[in-house]
Design a protein that fits this description.
Blueprint lengths: L4 H11 L6 E2 L7 H14 L1 E5 L5 H15 L2 E6 L2 E5 L12
């Protein structure tokens, strides 16, 4: 899915007040965590995921894996927080053209 810059900015604005819906624990990225993220995306479309690790490479790998496994679009990364978007069947968020 390809988003225009205008659509990305719109989604970032919507994501700003949101709190992280899923936070990875000590076990890292497990199948259960991926399933929970997938479920949250289906319900909310736009979510934040907190990846608390100090290793930059590991954090990047985990975030890329989340995006790949869920089929979502990575909007931005701020510190340890990943903002992702995936439209659901009902299309709760109306994107600008």
């Amino acid at each position: 899915m390809k988003l225009s810059n205008k659509q990305k900015q719109f989604l970032k604005g919507l994501a700003h007040p949101l709190k992280p819906v899923v936070q990875l624990g000590a076990n890292g990225l497990t199948e259960g965590v991926v399933a929970e993220i997938d479920n949250a995306l289906t319900h909310h479309e736009l979510i934040k995921v907190k990846v608390p690790t100090d290793d930059r490479e590991e954090k990047a790998l985990i975030m890329d894996a989340i995006v790949r496994e869920t089929g979502a679009v990575k909007l931005q990364v701020i510190g340890h927080t990943l903002v992702i978007y995936r439209p659901s069947d009902e299309r709760k968020i109306q994107l600008p053209k």
